[in-house]
Specification:
Elements: H1 2-18, H2 21-63
Length: 125
């Protein structure tokens, strides 16, 4: 098609140069028809290529080896695996605007007293 188009364009140029309007229109029509045919063939070839690639991809998936994936038993510890977002930086303790942090009680606080149970063997005092 490329060689035929080159010959037709040469004939078109010759007709234009000679001033032959009838030959010019004929050559333009032939070049136009050839360009349309080439575009049609190009679209057909692209469709064939696309169908072939899709078929090859399906065939590759059919023969592809199955891969086993092991799921973790426990959730990932911080710092393991792919990060899900920005790094989490813990807040300092105590916060900078507070004075001394509260300290835990040294001795447990007293609770309510248990009621006394009457003792046997003693009556009246």
């Amino acid at each position: 098609m490329g060689q035929l188009r080159a010959r037709l364009v040469f004939e078109l140029g010759d007709a234009v140069y000679r001033g032959d309007d009838q030959a010019t229109e004929k050559a333009r029509g032939q070049v136009r028809e050839l360009d349309e045919l080439a575009a049609q063939r190009g679209a057909e070839m692209e469709a064939v290529v696309a169908r072939t690639q899709a078929r090859l991809e399906r065939r590759r998936l059919e023969v592809q080896a199955t891969e086993m994936v092991e799921l973790p038993d426990q959730p990932a510890q911080p710092g393991e695996g792919a990060p899900g977002g920005p790094a989490v930086i813990p807040e300092p303790y105590p916060p900078p605007d507070e004075g001394n942090p509260p300290e835990p009680a040294i001795m447990p606080e007293p609770g309510p007293l248990a009621p006394e149970e009457p003792r046997e063997g003693r009556r009246g005092a």
